[in-house]
């Protein structure tokens, strides 16, 4: 089996391997999350970076929520990350507890929770015999970790994550 957790920002074959397992849309989200983490001065891509990229990039992700006002509220919280709300996260590693904290041999440039979410997205795609994971796969994987930064943002924006997870379990069309 190939190493699916090679999410580093390097130029090597590990990145190409990951990109080959993602839809074009999700690969774009991952690139945006990497850029956002770098721009914000964060050492790692975390689940909030991934959620931000999903909301900005994919209409199907936005449609999974309870309308435009909820999406606007979410984006507002995510934008505040670098100017106030998320400052307590700055310089810390996101470890939601969903997977044991990796001290050695982790995924370079990714928080443990973000790496677990990417694995979860790939698992969801493989479970439906898809060749590539899509944006809704990643959103569902993010929602599956109740202790992640992404879910913290969702809760702050009054998103019912249980209802969102149920909707996502029923929404699979249009994914490769």
From TrEMBL:
<dbReference type="GO" id="GO:0006508">
    <property type="term" value="P:proteolysis"/>
</dbReference>
<dbReference type="InterPro" id="IPR036628">
    <property type="entry name" value="Clp_N_dom_sf"/>
</dbReference>
<protein>
    <submittedName>
        <fullName>Clp protease N-terminal domain-containing protein</fullName>
    </submittedName>
</protein>
<keyword id="KW-0645">Protease</keyword>
<dbReference type="GO" id="GO:0008233">
    <property type="term" value="F:peptidase activity"/>
</dbReference>
<keyword id="KW-0378">Hydrolase</keyword>
């Amino acid at each position: 089996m190939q190493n699916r957790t090679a999410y580093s920002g390097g130029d090597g074959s590990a990145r190409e391997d990951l990109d080959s397992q993602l839809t074009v849309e999700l690969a774009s989200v991952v690139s945006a999350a990497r850029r956002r983490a770098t721009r914000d001065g964060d050492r790692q891509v975390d689940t909030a970076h991934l959620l931000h990229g999903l909301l900005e990039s994919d209409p199907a992700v936005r449609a999974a929520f309870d309308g435009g006002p909820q999406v606007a509220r979410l984006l507002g919280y995510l934008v505040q990350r670098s100017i106030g709300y998320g400052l307590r996260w700055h310089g810390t590693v996101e470890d939601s507890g969903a997977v044991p904290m990796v001290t050695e041999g982790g995924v370079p440039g990714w928080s443990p929770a973000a790496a677990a979410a990417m694995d979860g997205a790939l698992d969801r795609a493989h479970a439906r015999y898809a060749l590539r994971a899509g944006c809704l796969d990643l959103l569902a994987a993010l929602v599956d970790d109740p202790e992640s930064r992404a879910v913290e943002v969702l809760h702050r924006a009054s998103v019912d994550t249980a209802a969102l997870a149920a909707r996502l379990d029923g929404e699979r069309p249009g994914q490769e």
